[in-house]
Amino acid sequence: MQPIRAAIFDLDGTLVDSLPATVDAFNVVVSPFLGTRLTAKEVRIVGVNYRKVLGNFLPPEKVDAGLERLLAEFVAKVADVRPFAGVPDLLADLRRRGCKLVVATLRAEDITARILESTGLVSSFDRVLCGAEAIGTGQGFAVDSAALARVAAELGVPPEHAAFVCDSTVDLDAGRKAGMRTAAVAWGYQRREDLALSAPDFLFDALSA
Q: Is residue 105 pLDDT above 80, yes or no?
């Protein structure tokens, strides 16, 4: 098996637990219309396509304003976002081993920067792939496979020597299309059973102590 020289990590659900802050932000926007609070299970987020999710709960004419308010509320709650236990140590260990590290997310550049700064992870990465660059020619449901391949090339790492680490089946598909090995983490926001059915090269239930 080819050695892994670059590890590309999804952000939300893989490196950091942003779901509580996201649900709180959604409820600020949506609860006045519903008269009740949404649960984490009800906030079914595909990538960060918040517009689509809001469309499930708001009148069409309210979605644009609701999205603007939602993003502002999430920014205000960024300090509540935390790395999953063991993530900082994992990244430090990979760097010591000489592995290039990348974070890849559909989030906008400014919010991505805020999350990485707030969680103390910003210095761990050689490259950040986010926003329009990460969306590429895709539909905004997964990081664009061509963008993943370009980042690996920038780092001088052939795709077969890179791994995409994520918590969703759509991202696993993107990693495979980029010619990379794929690693799924079961502590994120998609069921382990669904991840296993997608047949990643690696499936991690927990970080090693």
A: yes
